[in-house]
Amino acid sequence: MSKSEQVIIIGGGLAGCEAAWQLLRRGHAVQMYEMKPQKFSPAHKIENLAELVCSNSLKSNSLDNAHGLLKEEMRRLHSLIIAAADKTVVPAGSALAVNRVLFSREVEDQLNQQKKFTLHRTEITEIPKDVLAIIATGPLTSDAMAQEISRILGSSYCETQISKTKYTEICKSNNPATSGGYYGTRDLYFYDAIAPIVEADSINMNNVFWASRYDKGTPDYLNCPLSEEEYKRFRQELLAGEKVAAKSFEDVKYFEGCLPVEVLAARGEDTLAFGPMKPVGLVDPHTGVIPYAVVQLRKENTAGTLFNMVGFQTKLTWPEQRRIFRLIPGMENAEFARYGSIHRNTYINSPSLLSPSLQLKNNKNIFFAGQITGVEGYTESAAMGLLAGLNTAFIIEGKKLQPPPVQTAIGALLRYITSTESADHFQPMNINFGLLDTLRGKKLKKRDKKILHVSQALQSLNDWKTDQYLN
Description:
The chain has helices at residues 14-25, 66-76, 80-87, 100-112, 143-153, 228-240, 261-265, 318-325, 350-353, 378-396, 409-418, 446-467, and strands at residues 7-10, 30-33, 57-60, 89-90, 95-98, 117-120, 133-135, 157-162, 167-172, 188-194, 197-199, 209-211, 221-226, 293-299, 306-309, 336-338, 341-347, 359-360, 363-368. Residues 156-188 have low confidence and may be disordered. 49% of the residues are buried. The protein has a six-stranded mixed beta sheet, covered by helices on one side. A six-stranded antiparallel beta sheet has the order 12-13-14-15-11-16. Helices cover 29% and strands 18% of the residues. Helix 2 (66-76) runs parallel beside helix 10 (378-396) and helix 3 packs across helix 4 (100-112). The longest helix is centred in the last third of the chain and has 22 residues, at 446-467.
């Protein structure tokens, strides 16, 4: 293959942009296809690349957290997404949160400055043949592209039309014997939810307080304290509130790490109080005691004019969100810049379909990257884009990139989505220390174990970079 060969990238989200960046850094030409603004998914709102659809937080930035470790590894691999996040950060305690508009602009500006980058603002509905292509269409893959992906996988296809309050799903079945005969795999899908955003000047600051749990970092979260009576009433209203109903033919599967708040409420009286509304480590300065429960609000932008309701993904109807969330102390007159909503997440059965290079096992020209591979989260999606970009670059150069060590966060995540052992029960996964290889030797305390994981991960990554000439 020629070193000047162009690569097609389908999708301008985090993974697609990261893949493009890694190729461009190594001198390769990239043709990116992004359907916005010609066509928007139900959840996308702005024209820029790398739009953050749900939260504006990329989760923890601390090295005693697996999310923080993954970010540090990506920094060392020259990640565009992490660099853009670091440049557009807004205060969020130990988390890496960004001004989402500035973040998207920064990513797009950096790519457009590269001479070998071409952006096509049009929907592509057919995967090109005989060229290297990276599919990074994300969890909201368009109907036409979902059908095309289904065709090349030889699997079932669910065509879904989604509006803000109405979902129509028609499932079709393709015969693997007539469409490549590849494993007879089926497409998987689950439903994810978006948390509301509140206008800052509508919050009653007399009833809330600034703090981060255990006073870690700076006090960047607004905390709305609830008494036991207020909490129980709030939970009952969540349970009774009108939800956007699933149709009789829908099989809704929620990702356990991002459950709607009303689904959590239905699991038990104290589930919320031990989950997103847990008050642990938060002392109300007005009373000097820990509240029975809290709702945390995080800055959505640098100016602090918008706040995200942390952990409050919801499928409540919009009128019910306004009514019920106004029961929260401090939010009696809350105005919502964005209501929560529900949307489809689509992902493939990667362990059956993909090799560790993120290439299709039955078509070496096609790579998959991002959330469609079954990783969950902004950083995880970008990480798989990073690896897809590097693997594609190495193939153009006539070389082979060895997978990153499983002692690293990025290597462990890659192993999870490509290990055939999990093919029969594969579900999306965030990065966590449990994915990394078990530490050998004497039993360690939890914090000491994390420190050792991080130390070994970063050393392994540096050794791998040296071996693969990635410095």
